[in-house]
Amino acid sequence: MKTQLLMLLTAAEEEEPGKLYLPEVVREDTFNQIDSGNYAFVYTGVGRELWRSFSAVDLDLQLAEVIPTGDYLFDRAIVNNVKFYRLRYAVIWESFDGSEHYYQFTLLQESHLLQAIIDDFRVTLWSGLFLVLILMVLIQLLALHWGLRPLDLIAFDLKKIESGQQHSLQGDYPRELYPLTQNLNFLIEAERQQREKYRNTLSNLAHSLKTPLAVIKGEVHGGTTDQALVNSQINRMDEIIQYQLTRAVSGSSGSMLSSVNVDICIEKILSALEKVYQSKCVKFTYKGDASARFFGDEGDLMEMLGNLLDNAGKWTSENVWVDVNASSIDVGHQLEIFIKDDGPGIPKEKHELVLQRGHRLDEQTEGQGIGLSVVAELVHHYGGTIEIDPLYTDGACFKICFVFKRVN
């Protein structure tokens, strides 16, 4: 309607002061058709009609008021019981003789015509929004399908692992899923190792019990039973069973999922060993590190440290020293444990031998030669290293080192 009003202003010309001229036929076609529903009028400042469009020849319209110039006034009006949208605009026209005259341009449009346009616009708008909504939902579904596809690949690989076609998650996964797949692989590998450990334990247990059972069977069937021999073999079987059960329930290799305070574990062990070796007057000296953490099972740490410290207390002359160092490195955390004694020491040529199962330095000393081998197996199980310092000559010095990698 503003466009139509500006068109009328452009077509208007003043023939003489106070007399505005507009052609009967204007460029807007709806103004040239009778009862088109679109009408235009021009009034003077005193309310006298100067011009009306051809479409309004039979329309009775009385100007109710004079409006200020320069502002568009848009409202609704009822003429001949017909509802209209009305746009009015007043101007001051300066004639060529310098006089000024007031003119008011009024446009009327039947409300049902404009309402039809509004309804069409609403239909178009809501149809467009509905199509945009459908498009956005489709895009979201595609994005979710694309974003969740790596999880589908993980599920597919897990099914392959379950069926035995592969042993770990091997797909090319996004970097964001790397911690998840790494820990899943760790859990899968830990479970596989645990099953392997149970299988080996049963095998070792069966193999170890063959000899004692054969001896007992021979005594029973021989008629003359040596009770002392039978009892010794029964004790031997009990020791074997206890050892294999302990190994069967030992924890898995180190991870960043849980950690143990090293200080607390060592203090527990030293408190017990001080009572065991009280008669021998062994002095245990501990230099700890409050930040030291062992990322793994507490029982495994107690097993390793307990065997090493018990071995040191058994062989030392008087003193046992324990040093713990913890540090942060580029790949994660490093833990070093040194256990030293002032006993007879271990010959260099037997450093590797004593860490193997069943080997002992002194065959006359009570024991089965499995304590240090258990320590070595657990250390290697956690990816660590164990060594006997060849430069330490005042006794034996065992060094254990673990590197626990950080999950990025």
Provide an overview of this structure.
By secondary structure, this protein is an alpha+beta fold. The chain folds into 3 domains: 2-113, Beta-Lactamase (2-Layer Sandwich); 174-249; 254-405, 2-Layer Sandwich (Heat Shock Protein 90). The protein is 43% helix and 23% strand. It has helices spanning 2-11, 111-163, 178-222, 227-248, 262-276, 298-315, 371-381; strands at residues 13-16, 19-21, 38-44, 49-52, 73-79, 82-94, 100-110, 260-261, 283-287, 293-294, 319-329, 332-341, 385-388, 397-405. It has a 5-stranded antiparallel sheet. Strands 9-11-12-14-13 form a 5-stranded mixed sheet, with helices on one face. A hairpin with a 4-residue loop joins strand 3 (38-44) and strand 4. Helix 3 (178-222) packs antiparallel against helix 4 and helix 5 (262-276) packs parallel to helix 6. It is rod-shaped. Residues 251-256 and 363-368 have low confidence and may be disordered. Keywords: ATP-binding, Kinase, Membrane, Nucleotide-binding, Phosphoprotein, Transferase, Transmembrane, Transmembrane helix.
Keywords:
408 residues, 3 domains, five-stranded antiparallel β-sheet, five-stranded mixed β-sheet, Heat Shock Protein 90, alpha+beta, single chain, 7 helices, Beta-Lactamase
Rounded to the nearest angstrom, the distance between the terminal CA atoms is 66 Å
- What's the helical proportion of residues? 40-55%
Number of strands: 14
Tell me the β content.
15-25%
Sum up the overall morphology in one term: rod-shaped
Helical run tally: 7
Name of the top-level CATH class of the largest domain: Alpha Beta
The tally of structural domains comes to 3
> Structural class of the secondary elements?
alpha+beta
For the sheet with most strands, the description reads: 5 strands, antiparallel
* CATH fold group of the largest domain: Heat Shock Protein 90
Average pLDDT, rounded to a whole number, is: 83
User: How would you spell out the order of helices and strands?
Assistant: HEEEEEEEHHHEHEEHEEHEE
CATH superfamily of the largest domain: Histidine kinase-like ATPase, C-terminal domain
